[in-house]
Amino acid sequence: MTPEQALEEALVGGLAAQPEVQSVLGHPARLYARRPGRPAYPYGLVERHSVQPLAAGDGAATEHRIDIALFTRHGGRADARDALAVLRGAFETLHLLPEGRRVILAHTVYADTMRTAQLTAFRGLMRVRILMEAA
């Protein structure tokens, strides 16, 4: 498993285990690192993960920007916004422990909600920034 996959698994697993996320996305939480076939609504998905090396002492530090999309159908934009707020709150209190790495900084960069192109669902998007180095 790559460090990026380990971080995604730690992020998804940590968020999905939190009761407030389960209250929005079901139990077990429908939050995925990779797109499943046809998930039930609402659900969350890691859509994008970019990695940049940081100019740190030994060169082992990296900056990760991860986009987590949240899809809802019922309740309109308010439902998507509320579900995104729960996900964001859970992230802000999450203690990430990816194997072999140490998290230096983790914070939310951006969060927004919008209607999808199909006009039958809403999409929330949360972008997080995580700085890590070798443990």
Keywords:
single chain; five-stranded mixed sheet; STM4215-like; elongated; alpha+beta; 135 residues
Description:
The chain is an alpha+beta fold and 135 residues long. The protein has a single domain, classed as STM4215-like (2-Layer Sandwich). It has helices spanning 3-16, 19-25, 76-92; strands at 31-32, 43-53, 62-72, 101-115, 122-134. A hairpin with an 8-residue loop joins strand 2 and strand 3. Helix 2 (19-25) packs antiparallel against helix 3 (76-92). It is elongated, with a radius of gyration of 15 Å. The mean pLDDT is 89.
Name the CATH architecture: 2-Layer Sandwich
Q: Into which percent range does the helicity of residues fall?
A: 25-40%
Tell me the number of helical segments per DSSP (H or I, 4 or more residues long): 3
Strand content: 35-45%
User: How would you spell out the order of helices and strands?
Assistant: HHEEEHEE
User: Biggest β-sheet, characterized?
Assistant: 5 strands, mixed
Averaged pLDDT: 89
Q: Which CATH C-level class is it?
A: Alpha Beta
* Gap from first CA to last CA: 16 Å
